[in-house]
C-alpha cells in the first residue's frame, strides 16, 4: 500500500471515530514472517496529526531495555501523547523466542526485569541494576518520558496479571471469555493493592479478531480464512472467542467487555475490503461508545 493510500485510510478511520491504530510485532513468526512494531507505528504516527498509535503486543523479552527506552523517548518526541506501549512475552511460536537467544522458560522473568528498568529510565533515573538477566551501571535516557507512554501488559496467565499490577498501566486480554475478563481485572486490582498501586488509573483493553459481512456464514468464512492463514491453526480452536456476523452482531458480542471495564478496544476487523472494514468499525465503535 502506498503512503498516499495509507494516509487516506487513516483519514477515513479517524472520520469513522477510530482514535488509535495498533500494529503487531514479530521478529520471525512461524515461517519467518513479521513486522517491527516500533518502525510501523513511527511511520504511521507521521501520517495523521491526531491518531494515537499502539504496539500490541511488543515481544519485550527479545530486546534489551536500554534500546527500548530510547525508542520510547524518540516516539514521545515525534508523537507526544499519542503512543500506547503494549508488551508481552510471546509464546505462540517457541522457535521465534529461541532463535533470538532467549530461553522460552525464563522469558517471563526477563520481561519483569526489562519492565522495571524501562520504567525507571522513563522517569529519568540513573539506573544501577543487578539482576538475573541484566546488569547496568549508571544507565540513563534523556529526554525524560515520564508517564506519558502508558504500558499495557498482555498475556492470558495469572503471571501476566501480576506483571500488570506491578509494572503496567493496564492489561489487554485476548482469547478469553467475559467471565475470565472480569476475573482478570479483579485480580489485577487485588495484586496492585498489595503493592501500593491501587490508585492507578487503569487503561484495560481487549483485542479480538472479528469477521464482518452481511451474513454470519460469510463473516465466519472471511475471518476463518484470515486467521488460519496467519496462525496455521484450525479456526475451530479460536471460534468461541471470535465475534462474527453483521457489525451489530459483533458490537453486541463485545459490549459485555466494555461493561466489565474495557476502555481500549483493538479490533482486527476482517471484511471484504478495507472500505468495508472501516465502515464496520464505525458502526461497532459508535455502538460501544453509546453504552
Short description:
This protein has 291 residues and is of the alpha/beta class. The chain has helices spanning 3-15, 37-45, 65-78, 94-99, 107-122, 158-167, 178-194, 216-231, 247-260, 274-289; strands at 20-23, 26-29, 33-35, 52-59, 83-88, 127-130, 135-139, 151-154, 170-173, 205-206, 209-212, 244-245, 264-265, 268-270.
Folded structure, characterized:
Helices cover 45% and strands 19% of the residues. It has ten helices and 14 strands. It has helices at residues 3-15, 37-45, 65-78, 94-99, 107-122, 158-167, 178-194, 216-231, 247-260, 274-289; strands at 20-23, 26-29, 33-35, 52-59, 83-88, 127-130, 135-139, 151-154, 170-173, 205-206, 209-212, 244-245, 264-265, 268-270. The strands form four sheets. It has a seven-stranded parallel sheet, with helices on one face. Strands 12-11-14 form a three-stranded parallel sheet, with helices on both faces. Helix 5 (107-122) runs parallel beside helix 6.
Amino acid at each position: 500500500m502506498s503512503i498516499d493510500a495509507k494516509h487516506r485510510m487513516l483519514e477515513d478511520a479517524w472520520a469513522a471515530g477510530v482514535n488509535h491504530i495498533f500494529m503487531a510485532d514479530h521478529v520471525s513468526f512461524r515461517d519467518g514472517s513479521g513486522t517491527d512494531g516500533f518502525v510501523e507505528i513511527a511511520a504511521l504516527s507521521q501520517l495523521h496529526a491526531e491518531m494515537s498509535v499502539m504496539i500490541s503486543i511488543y515481544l519485550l523479552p527479545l530486546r534489551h531495555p536500554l534500546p527500548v527506552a530510547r525508542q520510547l523517548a524518540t516516539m514521545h518526541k515525534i508523537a507526544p501523547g499519542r503512543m500506547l506501549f503494549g508488551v508481552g512475552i510471546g509464546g505462540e511460536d517457541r522457535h521465534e523466542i529461541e532463535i533470538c537467544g532467549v530461553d522460552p522458560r525464563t522469558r517471563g522473568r526477563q520481561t519483569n526485569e526489562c519492565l522495571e528498568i524501562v520504567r525507571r529510565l522513563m522517569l529519568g533515573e540513573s539506573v544501577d541494576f543487578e539482576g538475573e538477566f541484566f546488569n547496568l551501571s549508571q544507565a540513563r535516557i534523556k529526554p525524560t518520558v515520564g508517564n506519558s507512554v502508558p504500558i499495557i501488559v498482555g498475556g492470558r496467565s495469572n503471571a501476566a496479571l501480576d506483571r500488570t499490577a506491578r509494572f503496567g498501566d493496564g492489561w489487554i486480554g485476548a482469547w478469553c471469555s467475559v467471565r475470565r475478563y472480569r476475573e482478570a481485572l479483579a485480580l489485577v486490582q487485588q495484586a496492585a493493592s498489595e503493592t501500593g498501586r491501587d490508585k492507578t488509573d487503569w487503561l484495560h483493553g481487549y483485542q479480538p479478531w472479528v469477521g464482518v459481512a452481511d451474513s454470519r456464514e460469510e463473516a465466519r468464512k472471511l475471518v476463518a480464512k484470515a486467521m488460519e492463514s496467519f496462525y496455521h491453526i484450525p479456526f475451530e480452536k479460536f471460534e468461541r472467542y471470535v465475534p462474527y456476523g453483521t457489525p451489530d452482531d459483533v458490537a453486541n458480542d463485545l459490549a459485555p467487555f466494555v461493561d466489565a471495564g474495557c476502555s481500549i478496544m483493538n479490533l482486527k476487523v476482517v471484511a471484504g475490503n478495507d472500505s468495508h472494514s472501516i465502515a464496520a468499525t464505525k458502526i461497532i465503535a459508535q455502538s460501544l461508545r453509546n453504552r
